[in-house]
Specification:
The structure holds 2 protein chains of 2 kinds. By secondary structure, chain A is mainly alpha-helical. Chain A is built from 8 helices and 2 strands, in the order βαααααααβα. Chain A has a single domain, classed as Transmembrane di-heme cytochromes, Chain C (Fumarate Reductase Cytochrome B subunit). The C terminus of chain B is likely disordered. The chains are: A mainly alpha, B alpha/beta.
Chain lengths: 227, 379
């Protein structure tokens, strides 16, 4: 019998959905800024400041995304065991390494059932290590490019040193390429969630809305022991 | 009458330049230096009293493009610059002596004005194979630069080549070309890149030196903030078209004829710091974007490599056989990953049909428990 247990706390779910919204908005607006593929007519009311508006939305959601990352980073230290930063480095402990191996075997069709876990499976945690690193590079390059509007301003003081090492065109290109890597991550993330949800029957998909997962008796007892 | 009376104003008067023109020149320089207008009398007073400092103009691996720009200077005209503001003791292209006599005038000036003269360097300095790829009078460019810049009051590197190496330093940089800042870090140096340098800026830097006795404030690349402190994009006359989303799609199309933004044609204005839109070139007549061609980013470090392709928005991604754009690679990777997960999903679905997972578990049906009040009824 599976038991319903509360795993994902509010900041985990909130930042997840803010990130989803931000990434979708930032990707569309960012692509438009790099390649303005929509031809606008300034005889339309929305056409007189179209690129300006798109850039404004991009910067606005960049700040929302940064706020979300800041909250999630705080929660990685303040939250429960399944929100902890330790989940990003599953290879650091024995249990994590075993779970990692089992997950790889499952995805490679060498094992029938996915490893049953309370929070993230180890392989998912590992992908979050890469995605978090990409988020921070993306935020840094974004603010570096933004800061160029005023070389004596705050953002340029914090980030402008990078242009002594890498040309701003290459920073711009990196910012563009990371967008595609984040899209690749999103594909993988949704597909894996779909697969594990349907195979394991643990309510994984609904858990990111409700916070509750369905766990076997052993794991559910462990969750209660932690509470 | 003394051919060179003391003080610029007197010397100019001797050549028929009246005080009104002199003050107009001072106002132009004050404005170019981005100084408040109350500094104009200070600039005028300093220039009126300035003794003619010696200037040595060195050319190394260059195309003489910065010299060409200098020869077309109209504010002040070149003959005023050479004869009145500065004592140009050595400039291969415009000096009267030639051969051994020319080299002698260089050494004479260095010795006579030790620690007091200005140097302008044009062209990159090759360092490979002991600098044999550029020699003047039997001496390597490295050798000359070390001697002449080493005992100068200040050095101005004019143009992209003496900034970081420029075109000669473009990959694969066969001569090991470097700029003055790379060869002689630590000397009093002002970098004024551009291809070519804008002579109004160059003159303004000299005026700043004469007025304040120091080089102007610079950014992290040693470029004066008055000329390289803001992006071309942010002062561009076509910026309104950028913000509106009106872009030239191809050369000669309707947008191009209407003067729309050149962003999609690869303009590097958003990546380049220079005052071209305000100062312009050739007596303020025009500048590249004004003439309908995108900026190529000539005042930025490594621009031949980092700003190319000049007609595309982003650099190519190297290492993918044929050089490919970031978008081509990105779309291919996303499509490939999507196809891989699609295939994985199909195989997983077939497996779930043949070997249901319920057989491997003691209970796959989620059931609520009585002591979790938030949980609803199980299936």
């Amino acid at each position: 019998m599976l038991r319903r247990e509360y795993i994902w706390q509010v900041p985990v779910r909130l930042t997840h959905w803010v990130n989803v919204l931000s990434i979708v908005v930032l990707s569309f607006t960012g692509y438009y800024i790099g390649n303005p593929y929509i031809t606008v007519s300034n005889s339309e009311w929305w056409g007189v400041y179209f690129m300006g508006t798109v850039r404004y939305i991009h910067f606005l959601f960049a700040f929302i995304f940064v706020a979300s990352l800041a909250l999630r980073t705080y929660w990685a230290f303040a939250g429960n065991e399944w929100a902890s930063w330790r989940n990003l480095f599953p290879f650091l402990n024995v249990e994590g390494r075993k779970s990692l191996g089992d997950a790889i075997k499952y995805y490679a069709f060498l094992r029938r059932e996915p490893p049953e876990v309370i929070g993230h499976n180890a392989l998912a945690g590992l992908t979050y290590m890469f995605i978090v690193a990409l988020y921070f590079v993306q935020v840094f390059t974004g603010f570096a490019l933004l800061g160029q509007y005023n070389p004596s301003g705050l953002w340029y003081k914090l980030t402008g040193w990078i242009f002594g090492l890498v040309s701003n065109q290459n920073i711009r290109e990196l910012h563009h390429i990371i967008m595609y890597l984040i899209i690749v991550f999103a594909l993988q993330h949704v597909y894996s969630a779909f697969l594990v949800d349907s195979e394991e029957g643990n309510g994984l998909m609904s858990s990111i809305f409700s916070g509750f997962k369905f766990l076997s008796k052993d794991l559910a007892d462990r969750v209660r022991a932690k509470r | 009458m003394n051919e060179f009376p003391e003080g610029l104003e007197k010397r100019l008067a001797a050549r028929g330049v009246n005080r009104r023109d002199f003050l107009k020149f001072c106002s132009l320089m004050t404005a170019t230096l981005a100084l408040p207008i109350r500094y104009q009398p200070k600039v005028a007073a300093a220039l009126a009293a300035a003794t003619r400092p010696a200037l040595i103009w060195l050319e190394f691996q260059d195309c003489a493009g910065n010299t060409e720009a200098l020869l077309r200077a109209s504010r002040p005209p070149i003959e005023k610059l050479v004869l009145d503001i500065l004592s140009v003791d050595y400039h291969e292209t415009i000096m009267a002596p030639a051969g051994k006599q020319a080299e002698k005038s260089l050494l004479d000036s260095v010795q006579a004005n030790k620690g007091k003269y200005l140097v302008v360097v044009e062209g990159s300095i090759p360092t490979k194979d002991n600098g044999v790829y550029c020699t003047v009078g039997g001496r390597s460019a490295m050798d000359i630069a070390r001697q002449v810049c080493g005992s100068a009051a200040a050095t101005i590197s004019a143009g992209a080549c003496s900034f970081y190496g420029g075109w000669p330093a473009a990959a694969p940089n066969p001569t090991g070309a470097v700029g003055v800042k790379d060869l002689m870090p630590g000397i009093p140096l002002l970098n004024m890149p551009g291809c070519p340098v804008n002579v109004v800026n160059l003159t303004a830097a000299v005026v700043h030196f004469l007025t304040f006795g120091a080089l102007p404030a610079t950014d992290q690349f040693g470029r004066p903030l008055f000329a390289y402190g803001t992006r071309i994009h942010d002062n561009c006359e076509r910026r309104a078209h950028f913000d509106a989303g009106e872009y030239v799609q191809e050369w000669g199309d309707e947008g191009h004829r209407k003067g729309w933004c050149l962003y999609k044609m690869g303009c590097k204005g958003p990546a380049t710091f220079h005052n071209c839109p305000t100062v312009r070139y050739n007596d303020g007549v025009s500048w590249p974007v004004g003439a309908g061609h995108g900026c190529v980013g000539c005042s930025e470090l490594g621009f031949w490599d980092t700003m190319s392709p000049f007609y595309r928005r982003l650099p190519d991604v190297k290492g993918f056989g044929v050089e490919a754009s970031a978008d081509q690679i990105g779309v291919a990777v996303v499509a490939g990953v999507a196809a891989a997960f699609g295939a994985h999903g199909v195989i997983s679905a077939i497996r779930a049909q043949r070997d249901p997972i319920a057989k491997h578990k003691d209970g796959a049906t989620p059931v609520s428990t009585e002591d979790t009040p938030q949980a609803g009824k199980g299936a």
